[in-house]
Write a structure and sequence with these properties.
By secondary structure, the chain is an alpha+beta fold. It is built from five helices and four strands; from the N terminus they run H-H-E-E-E-H-E-H-H.
């Protein structure tokens, strides 16, 4: 195979994955969990620090729960399924990859959002608000 053909095939694969993830993200937005709906009501329309968040936002081969591109912040909501060893391993690999891309990831448990939304919002604001230099 010629170098140009390899590059062409790689680009084709990337385009297929991009389209697949876009469709997957669209599907996930329609299938939001109760907890995602609660947090989305709080994040949408720049309600926190006038910052734009996207829900079920695709980044390469992953789809994040919520992402603020401007601040490079990803918010993930973890339910009980994330306690399974294979899911923990997947989450760690995924987090490492996204952090290498320059994102900061914060995670909240379902019950944190349902039972203590104010504290969750405070934590998000802390990540969005730059610390003044001395």
């Amino acid at each position: 195979m010629i170098k140009g053909e390899v590059k062409y095939k790689e680009n084709q694969k990337k385009n297929v994955m991009k389209k697949y993830n876009k469709e997957r993200a669209r599907y996930l937005r329609k299938q939001q969990t109760e907890t995602e709906k609660i947090l989305w009501k709080t994040l949408r329309n720049r309600k926190i620090c006038k910052t734009k968040f996207r829900r079920q936002h695709p980044i390469d081969s992953y789809v994040t729960d919520f992402c603020c591109e401007e601040k490079r912040l990803i918010i993930e909501i973890d339910g009980k399924i994330h306690d399974e060893p294979e899911n923990k391993e997947y989450d760690n690999i995924r987090s490492e990859y996204l952090e290498l891309k320059g994102y900061k990831i914060i995670r909240f448990r379902n019950d944190e959002i349902k039972e203590n939304l104010k504290t969750v919002v405070k934590k998000i604001i802390e990540y969005l608000t730059p610390v003044p230099s001395p």
